[in-house]
Specification:
The protein has 7 helices and no strands. It is an all-alpha fold and about 160 residues long.
Length: about 160
């Protein structure tokens, strides 16, 4: 029952609570109806559809936990004890601890900044080298006698390919 004495805001909040309750009850009723049809021996479109949805959710669930485990072990700002605590919480209360970890994890850590700086430096170094520079280095190696003519031609062909 809506409480009209609470004003427009109270009425809206009350309606939203009732709507949420109806949606939850409808979802539970659909689930129970689907469970009731399990032993009928026929598979319909909705059985396959819900099986695909459940499979997708499980794959997503597993992917999230693998990502969280990798992030925990990769981080340098967590000590070994904190890593053990997070892993234990993920095994004991998995869904809640995964949500808490995702919310509590800093957006950018010092390690993230360091990795971004290294990637940027590597990209600058790679873009600064041209094929002409590589050919000049090969010619210098050939002139110094480090590589012979056949090796020079083979490396030149690989570089220009």
């Amino acid at each position: 029952m809506l409480d009209l004495s609470a004003g427009p805001t109270g009425v809206i909040r009350g309606a939203m609570r009732q709507t949420r309750l109806i949606v939850v009850l409808a979802a539970v009723a659909m689930f129970l109806a689907a469970c009731n049809r399990v032993d009928q021996g026929s598979i319909g479109f909705w059985d396959i559809f819900w099986s695909m949805v459940v499979f997708f959710v499980w794959v997503l669930y597993i992917f999230i936990f693998i990502s969280i485990f990798m992030d925990i072990f990769r981080r340098n700002d967590l000590s070994g004890a904190w890593k053990v605590i997070w892993i234990l919480f993920l095994f004991v209360i998995p869904f809640i601890s995964a949500l808490v970890y995702i919310i509590a994890r800093p957006k950018v850590t010092a390690q993230d900044i360091q990795m971004a700086t290294q990637a940027e430096a590597a990209q600058k170094a790679a873009s600064g080298v041209s094929k002409a520079d590589e050919l000049a280095k090969l010619q210098a190696l050939k002139d110094a006698g480090t590589i012979n003519d056949a090796q020079y031609e083979d490396l030149k062909a690989k570089l220009l390919a």
